[in-house]
TrEMBL record:
It is a multi-pass membrane protein. This is Heavy metal translocating P-type ATPase. Coiled coil: none annotated. It comes from Sphingomonas molluscorum. The lineage of its organism: Bacteria, Pseudomonadati, Pseudomonadota, Alphaproteobacteria, Sphingomonadales. InterPro entries: ATPase_P-typ_cyto_dom_N, ATPase_P-typ_P_site, ATPase_P-typ_TM_dom_sf, ATPase_P-typ_transduc_dom_A_sf, ATPase_P-type_domA, HAD-like_sf, HAD_sf, Heavy-metal-associated_CS. Keywords: ATP-binding, Cell membrane, Ion transport, Magnesium, Membrane, Metal-binding, Nucleotide-binding, Phosphoprotein, Translocase, Transmembrane, Transmembrane helix, Transport.
Amino acid sequence: MNAPAPAAVAAERCATSQFSVPTLHCAGCIAKLEGGLAATPGVIDARVNFTAKRVRVTHLPELDTGAVRAAIARIGFPAEPFLGEADGAASRESRELVKALAVAGFAAMNVMLLSVSVWSGAEGATRQLFHWLSAMIALPAVAYAGRPFFRSAWAALRHGRTNMDVPISIGVVLACGLSLYETATGGHDAYFDGAVMLLFFLLAGRFLDSVMRARAQDSAGALLRQTAPGAQVLDKQNVPQWRAAEEVAPNMRMLVAAGDRLAADGVVESGTSSVDRSLITGESVPETVTAGSKVLAGTINMDGPLIVKVTAAGENTAIADIARLMEAAGGTKSRYVRIADRAARLYAPAVHSLAALSFLGWMLAGAGVHQAVLIAVAVLIITCPCALGLAVPVAQVVASGALMRAGVLIKDGSALERLAEADVALFDKTGTLTLGRPTPFDTLPLTAEEKPVALALARASRHPLSRALAAALEAEGIQAATLADMIEQPGLGIEGHVDGMRARLGRADWVGAEQPAEGAALSTGFVLGSAPARLLRFEDALRPDAETAVARLRSQGLAPAILSGDRAQAVAAIGHQLAVEATAELSPADKFAAIERLAASGRRVLMVGDGLNDGPALKAAHVSIAPSSASDVGQTAADLLFLGDRLMPVPVAIAAARRTMAVVRQNFALAIGYNVLAVPLAIAGYVTPLIAALAMSGSSLIVVANALRLRSAAR
């Protein structure tokens, strides 16, 4: 929603406030809140993030946070200012729903057992006893398990609006009230079984949706947690003092020790080292920095101490920009939620009207109040959107189980729908198409005398190529030599002495080795004493089935391409090997913009990436997949994860998603067909509330059975 912004308001004058709104339940709530805020004087724009249950309000500075919060309350939603902390609301909601679901399920099983006895022919005092026992079980269960619906319905009615929980609550309360009346007056029928079963199926659908949303949110928070909590700041006497990250400001000077993560963006004032920038660029090889080099918050100083003059801190750092991009992208997708809730908005008034017209019609036709109420309750129950509500979640759950067995984990409930629509597949390179683990390019050119020394040096370094060398030598069963006087030269490498000879492991020019023309970045040098210097070359190998997986994607109608932050030379080699278009040296914002351009041209982008730098792209894409080896941010930003070293789970997931959506469409047809047949019968008075509940449950079971066919979807 975009409220009409006053033309005279300059963007820099606007203030932005965020609020947690835990009572948002459907598109009706979203439209009501955004529309109400749009009509509030001083509000420029309001956008709801349904997944996180938050609203971001852009307003004039004259309108303070308290006034915006009061405006939200007047519209009918209690809100609290969002302070940038994970509030865990979705997890709390899931816990509450699972408790309610357990109570409703327990009550439904026991009440149905008693009902079966009544249906089997129990009469007189025995039937009365069973009805009272059913009431004793069902009424407390309905009071407890129905709270999520009753609270939502009451909050809507109190502010003069309605939502899909209103007819559900009315139907359950009326069914229980009518059943209690029948029980107390010795009537033949009671409908406690229908009420508790109705709640059970509704809670099942709502719990599944809640679990999916809980897994999807807070990816931006996960990114910000990658920054350092603070830094050693030098005072005027050059004495370091610990400052929390919030207290670091531009023009301060930070002392960053080897192995420390930077807490702010800045420029190196003195010192030489190498910095792991994979957080921002995805480049797996550390970058050498000296005086004048720019460094960014969240990156890691690998070798020697640096003094860094801060240029940007807190919300102005590059990593904070990435988090904002992810936040913005996360609030604009989930077409499934919008479609489902648009249907829900139409559902409530339609059901109320049908039930009211049924009641009035039968009263005018001469039926008594009891019969008219009975028919109205039957209409309310039989039109329950259980089958419609289960059509998508159940298919998603069954398909999720099949994909899980195939090594794919689904995190977002709407991911399969969006995955089925993808027509472009964009891949990050390092860690996605490749394994992200450097290995020796060929047999290591080291003699038996040199290998123990090289292993000793490699073990003493944190450089990725040193770790790869150590792993390769350890795999050969080499025992490390004992070196003396080992010292790490920042930005160059590490050296030590053995038997009077100097040994070095590091930059090729530092050890005296010749630099090759290609693959220079994935190489290191080694020299022992007066022996010839060795050049040790490494490669980041393609995933074993990458070419097969890319070919299958083409056969599925997707156009694969590479978007990478790595060096052009390395990316071009992978692109040539896979015969796909490749673009290199892209920043996170560049990837985000590229996906936005494709989306604007009508393409549905599948992004496959792993690094922290891929976070905004994973969020902005129509759907996204990350390997399980991805960073925390990559894992939380992606809609799906695949396990293991193989890439084939990506096209397998697409095939399963397309089968799932076919089943979903069949389920919608079944649910709509059920209503077309059942509602006229209920209005005509041929359906009691019990039969309505059974018919509703039957339609739900048919939908579930159809969804079970997806157990073999992941092939």
